[in-house]
Amino acid sequence: MSPDSSSFTSVSPLSSIPVMTADGTPMPLAGVGFVVTPHLSLPNVYLIPKLKLNLASVGQICDSGDYLVMFSGFFCCVQDLQSQNLIGTGRRGNGLYILDELKVLLLLLLLLLLICLPFV
What we know:
Layout: E1 8-20, E2 26-36, E3 41-47, H1 58-63, E4 67-71, E5 75-80, E6 86-93, E7 96-99, E8 106-109, H2 110-116
């Protein structure tokens, strides 16, 4: 999910369907499209203009290519398995992992971390 329409390479407009936030606040969904960074492309990203940050799930990153996402109690990183390059690093804060090395800032939800822990 992203509030920044300039980060999309294409967007298909959608009728104003609300997306519910964790605190129950509805935010209108303006469209869905592709977000491309220098290292990965994310399809089916929701354009939500009122959102404060870009959000992505671990599954969304893993499904977008051949990537390994790793976590510790205070750190995370994303590696491209084909090139072996580290394409993202981040830190944990307030229950979220914030990737600060990708072109688009992504927050990885703690819930998805708990699902992935048995595989790390």
